[in-house]
Amino acid sequence: MGEYFARTKVKIAHAINDDLPKLVGNRVVRMTKQNFQEEGFFGARWKEVKRREPHRKGHGKRYKGSDTRRKILTGRTGDLGRSIKAKPEQASVTIYSDLPYSAAHNEGTQNAGRGHRTRIPKRQFLGNHPKVEQATKEIIERKISKILQK
Questions:
Q1: What is the distance between the alpha carbons of residues 47 and 53, in angstroms, rounded to a whole number?
Q2: CA-CA distance, 12 to 144, in Å (whole number)?
Q3: What pLDDT, in 10s, does the model give residues 67-115?
């Protein structure tokens, strides 16, 4: 019996330190990228962008030269959504974007742009959420159950 406990202890330690951070990181990155497609943070819609707002009487059509069909925060290149990455470490994982403007969009700011006079509303795409916690819990439970069934 002692041998079973020793093997199980090693398998669980390996799962916690190596496997689970990778599994959780990959899942959360996919969930975050899905948020970009749904234009919100797990069901909470992002604030609409001016380029897609209907025109006001006497103001012509929409904003000149703007792409009214493009999704919020995708840009012409989609770089922000594609920049979401996971950095698995021992017994933890960090989900991040390495783009310099990602924090301004995720948290909002009052002083963006070249003249620092552009206001960017908060359009969160990274951070804690009950759906992230639930997905993490399910991955951990599935992995540990698989180890215990062997």
A1: 11
A2: 7
A3: 566 677 877 778 999 999 999 999 999 999 999 989 999 999 998 877 7
Q: What is the pLDDT of residue 55?
A: 56
Residues 6+ away with beta carbon under 8 Å from 64: none
Q: In Å, what is the CA distance from 99 to each residue of 32, 80, 114?
A: 15, 7, 17
Taking each helix axis from N to C end, the angle separating 130-149 and 20-38, rounded to the nearest 10 degrees, works out to 150
Closest CA to 124 of 87, 78, 73, 86: 73
The residue type of 39 is E
Q: What is the pTM of this model?
A: 0.82
